[in-house]
Amino acid sequence: MRCLTTAIKHVLAVAGLFCFMMLLACCGNRVAGTFTSGEIWKDNNGVHINAHGGGILTLSDTYYWFGEHKTEGRSGNSAQVGVHCYSSQDLYQWKDEGIALSVVADDTTHSITKGCILERPKVIYNKKNNQYVMWFHLEPKGEGYSGAMSGIAISDRPTGPYTFVKAIRPNAGYWPINVLETHKSGIFPQESQRFSGGDLPAHPDTLNLLGRDMPGGQMARDMNLFVDDDGTAYHIYASEENSTLHISQLDEDYTGCSGKYARFFVNRFMEAPTMFKKDGNYYLIMSGCTGWAPNAGRSAVAPSVWGPWEELENPFKGEDSDLSFHSQSTYVLPVPGTTHRFIYMGDRWTPENAIDGRYIWLPLRIEGKQPVIEWLPEWSYETTE
Question: For residue 341, how many other CB atoms are within 10 A of its CB?
């Protein structure tokens, strides 16, 4: 009997070790129930999560993570596959739900043909139509970043498949609510006059980029979506050759612009905007414009979506804060079960091998009115204030 008992204990020990090894294989270098920023983050299939520039859709007790599906090499920075979707009940372990929106491989004239630039996809739920709506920054294939368009797709299921609806320049034919008289002067630059997107030869109001683009719609590059407590949805995007941030109210279907929008942070060159709300105040986390290279983060607060917006300090604190911990903002997620704690989601880009991009998830808190993000090598939202 003692031999049998010993044998059973041995079998159980081996089985336990096997289960532990399988857990490690599934989770890569991270411990289940913690975030370890910058490490390989494996899904249920043991594959590094492929959802870059992404955002989270929260439905009841399930989270859906949508992001750019990258491929190997520098060519993987363009859209070779589409938008990937993952689901989770705890934010730590993610199930691969497949490609939510596929690029079109057999039609080179299609707006989202294979090889286009498709960035920062975000999905929101429209209760009115019981529909899931995806927006993303879109650049037609072969046109660099000159298109500066917004792509829109819809689905009746959160995981898709999503059907591409249209590509637009936002707010064509509309002036912003804070338009200046100089914008309506009729003195516009030539339509063919384009700039680098990182700097301008003069102030954007002097160049009147707003007036230049008003008839056909405003430029929209790095973007995000935000749904307020009353169900009103907003599109936040870098515009006017990236020099100025626009905040635009969407229509009731969330598939178009309402025509109400405003300009903020003129000539500040803000990218990677993400909006969240706490105690009636609205916050923005953003970056500067330095391409793939990281820079010092930006933050701002306002009592209303429509402002006035007050620019604050760099929210990142500590070593490498001037590089946002080598990341760029993509989304701010409320901590499950709370209204006062948040998770900063950022990307650590590797443009020379796009598929190897890593994720930086860190706790975000508000001190006074200032968002604060500090580095933690390993943490969990259940135990970190």
Answer: 17
- CA distance linking residue 366 with residue 60, whole number of Å: 26
Whether the Cβ atoms of residue 304 and residue 274 lie closer than 8 Å to each other:
no
CA–CA distance, 385 with 80 (Å, rounded to integer): 40
Residue 59 φ/ψ, nearest 5 degrees = -130, 110
CB-CB contact of 303 with 280 (8 Å): yes
Stretch 71-80: mean pLDDT, rounded?
Answer: 96
Domain with residue 262: its CATH number is 2.115.10.20
Residue 176 CB coordination number (10 Å): 22
Decide if 271 is inside a domain: yes
Q: Which band of pLDDT confidence, cut at 50, 70 and 90, is reported for residue 194?
A: confident
Q: Are 165 and 255 a contacting pair, CB within 8 Å?
A: yes
How much of the chain, in percent, has pLDDT values that exceed 90?
Answer: 83
* Torsion of Cα atoms, 183 then 188 then 192 then 195, to 10°: -60
Query: By three-state DSSP, how is residue 247 classified?
Result: strand
User: Angle 108-142-53 (CA atoms, 0-180°, nearest 5)?
Assistant: 95
> Which range of residues forms the domain containing residue 351?
50-374
Full strand arrangement of the beta sheet holding 310-311: 271-278, 281-287, 298-302, 310-311
pTM: 0.91
Q: Considering the domain boundaries, does residue 357 fall inside one? A: yes
Reported as half-sphere exposure (CB side, CA atoms, 13 A), residue 159 has a value of 10
Nearest residue to 375 (alpha-carbon basis) of 319, 331, 335: 319
User: What span, in angstroms and rounded, lies between the C-alpha atoms of 330 and 89?
Assistant: 21
Q: Where does residue 73 fall: left (phi above 0), alpha (psi -120 to 50 degrees), or beta otherwise?
A: left
Domain count, the chain: 1
Backbone angles phi, psi at 95, to 5 degrees: -100, 130
Alpha-carbon distance 38 to 105, whole Å? 32
Spatial separation of the C-alpha atoms in residues 264 and 109, rounded to whole Å: 35
CA atoms within 13 A on the CB side of 170: 38
CA 375 to CA 318: how far, in whole Å?
7
In a domain, 172, yes or no: yes
| pLDDT (0 to 100) of residue 385 | 77
Going by C-alpha positions, the residue among 223, 14, 8, 234 that lies closest to residue 137 is: 223
